[in-house]
Design goal:
heterodimer; A: four-stranded antiparallel beta sheet; 18% helix; globular; B: alpha/beta; Cathepsin D, subunit A, domain 1; eight-stranded mixed beta sheet; 15% helix
Chain lengths: 80, 143
């Protein structure tokens, strides 16, 4: 698979987890710019398993931004 | 000495459309984060979470960058959809995000629910190092 912009790779998939070998990072913003797709699957666990075969700076990212329509999220911690 | 018990709760809840924020406001704010350990560096996407005391990364990512959370004695209590769990808290070599690097930062190792479109949470223990967040915090306290 050839090197492409990360956002271009993400747009090719619908509701899938992607494993990407990063080629170029914007270090000032900590944003991966380009990479090479190594694997894709709808399941996050599976992408973690596949990632174990690869050394170096790889990225796991979901193809969609935000939550699916109709979902909301609540994340919090507190110290008591 | 004050006794601190760390608690966390996270849930993904199905909501009706009328509860969603207007379209121009994102329903979550996600950013890329680079986690660095003695063995490797990995990049993940995390939710910016001002309600989380600690940053959270998946257990498998901690292992990949060179830590073994199962050997860690420091555990914190968190509340999840499936009940109370005790999860390890480790100190990783560095966390880079939004152009800022914080070295020797504590992170909680835990998996978010499978529906979450991210790998982890970016909590207050990182956010307090960002000038933009400090300014935001000062402004909302004065509002």
């Amino acid at each position: 698979m050839k090197t492409q912009k990360i956002e271009t790779i993400r747009k090719k998939f619908h509701r899938e987890w992607l494993l990407i070998a990063i080629n170029k990072m914007d270090e000032k913003k900590t944003i991966p710019l380009t990479g090479r797709l190594l694997a894709h699957t709808p399941h996050r666990d599976e992408i973690y398993r596949k990632e174990m075969k690869y050394r170096g700076n790889t990225l796991t990212v979901y193809s969609e931004d935000g939550l699916p329509e109709g979902y909301g999220a609540a994340f919090y911690y507190q110290n008591v | 000495m004050a006794f601190l018990k760390d608690m966390a709760q996270h849930s993904i809840t199905k909501m009706s459309k009328r509860h969603l924020l207007p379209g121009f406001i994102p329903n979550i704010i996600t950013v890329y984060a680079q986690i660095v350990g003695p063995k490797d560096t990995k990049t993940i996407k995390v939710v910016l979470d001002t309600g989380a005391s600690y940053t959270m990364i998946p257990v498998r990512k901690a292992i990949e960058i060179g830590y073994d959370p199962s050997l860690i004695d420091k555990k914190i209590e968190i509340f999840t959809a499936s009940g109370i769990e005790y999860v390890p808290k480790i100190t990783i070599a560095s966390l880079k995000c939004l152009g800022k690097e914080v070295k020797n930062i504590e992170v909680v190792c835990h998996e978010l629910p499978p529906q979450a479109p991210v790998d982890g949470l970016l909590g207050l223990n990182f956010l307090v190092h960002l000038p933009a967040f400090i300014e935001f915090y000062q402004k909302i306290r004065l509002a």
